[in-house]
Amino acid sequence: xxxxxxxxxxxxxxxxxxxxxxxxxxxxxxxxxxxxxxxxxxxxxxxxxxxxxxxxxxxxxxxxxxxxxxxxxxxxxxxxxxxxxxxxxxxxxxxxxxxxxxxxxxxxxxxxxxxxxxxxxxxxxxxxxxxxxxxxxxxxxxxxxxxxxxxxxxxxxxxxxxxxxxxxxxxxxxxxxxxxxxxxxxxxxxxxxxxxxxxxxxxxxxxxxxxxxxxxxxxxxxxxxxxxxxxxxxxxxxxxxxxxxxxxxxxxxxxxxxxxxxxxxxxxxxxxxxxxxxxxxxxxxxxxxxxxxxxxxxxxxxxxxxxxxxxxxxxxxxxxxxxxxxxxxxxxxxxxxxxxxxxxxxxxxxxxxxxxxxxxxxxxxxxxxxxxxxxxxxxxxxxxxxxxxxxxxxxxxxxxxxxxxxxxxxxxxxxxxxxxxxxxxxxxxxxxxxxxxxxxxxxxxxxxxxxxxxxxxxxxxxxxxxxxxxxxxxxxxxxxxxxxxxxxxxxxxx
Length: 494
Ligand code: FAD
Ligand code: SF4
Description:
CATH class of the largest domain: Alpha Beta
Strand order of the largest sheet: 5-4-3-6-18
Number of helices: 21
Bound molecules: flavin-adenine dinucleotide, iron/sulfur cluster
Largest sheet: 5 strands, parallel
CATH topology of the largest domain: FAD/NAD(P)-binding domain
Number of domains: 3
CATH architecture of the largest domain: 3-Layer(bba) Sandwich
Strand content: 15-25%
CATH superfamily of the largest domain: FAD/NAD(P)-binding domain
Number of strands: 18
Shape: globular
Helix content: 25-40%
């Protein structure tokens, strides 16, 4: 391992001499190798919904914690949208005070066991770790350690509930129960507000429950974190569609003084190519929701989902990986990702791509479906695909896929799961004609305060960003809670 002294000198934002001293002081720590996550063997895990990653042992966690240099300027924190005090929780693990580590996490994150599993740490905190930036080597495994501390607390039945201020009796509402709203609700409860979360579905958790499958994020983990919010006094109303069951005006009349819209981006997109309405073609959203929340993989259910033998999932994001790996577990002989760009442009987490490859998923990259064909009963039987090349980068910075003339061919498929993106959920915007929207149909907010064009309505997560990530949604929930508190305190003093 080499360290780049020039990169330290060039960094004017910090005193490089302090960092240099840190390196010299910690030279033994720098020699330690990053821990590897324990996993269930691929052949075994595709037979069931068992969680793929099985966590670190206490010994592994303490060893990994020893790699953290407790930097004077901990750049990792700036990479975390909820600003967890990362060195503090890691040093608690190093001291074997695992419960204190969990408490440190909960000071700013209401879902540490979730984030430790699904956050793209490689693009967030770990991308900003001293090891990544200055040593050009593997970062401290911050996500694995976060998961370890949260799991230790839960598995040892010593869950701490964050302190809440004396109840102030002021009613606030969070719409939707995904990570954005759950975080906002937790932060407002800490400040003493009377918080109710309204959820359209019969289950609380948003995508954490209906989207991400058990083999990545078991529902019981999400439930335990929701239970902590309940113990903090947060109320939950399920099967309640704000804008239909009751309007925001109805809720205002019931005494709610401020609202957080965290209604997500759950509206699936399709490619609008010929044959896309044949039996056997469905969106990832429908497929995963039915399997995860409605037990539709069971043949004894009223509305079973199609368990295809030749399944193609169109797309390359986390949702596509979850769908194709679910199809494999439901018995697909051939489970394929069909993606129009190359592996390098694939937006799914590297870990998920790697796990999918281990599980025998085929990757048809630089390939795009252009037409579907059915049998006489309207059931899907084939799709025509076209090979693609890569052109100049587009607005997303990724190289644009370009069609290769005359490269079309047919693939036998009985199920296609379309996973090419989502649009914001339209129910809240449709019920509020004065709410300003962007041209992407997301709610327009002030970036600093997350306040919408209607002063008592704040918004965050996917309804503002389009399909993004759990931790960005949580960061928004936290920011919005602080702004809602300011807003309420201001109207109280007027
Ligand atoms: P959501 O989680 O979508 O929750 C919104 C909730 O609002 C839903 O429960 C919905 O039913 C409810 N709702 C909508 N309208 C109303 C209404 N009018 N009244 C009441 N309730 C309403 N991100 C990662 O960081 N890592 C991953 O590994 C990852 N994997 C993913 C896998 C899948 C399959 C999917 C679909 C997404 C994944 N994401 C991942 C993205 C991440 O889950 C989302 O960015 C995040 O959940 C957004 O949170 P949110 O709170 O804004 O909305
Ligand atoms: Fe420094 Fe990395 Fe430890 Fe953060 S996690 S304090 S950046 S070594």
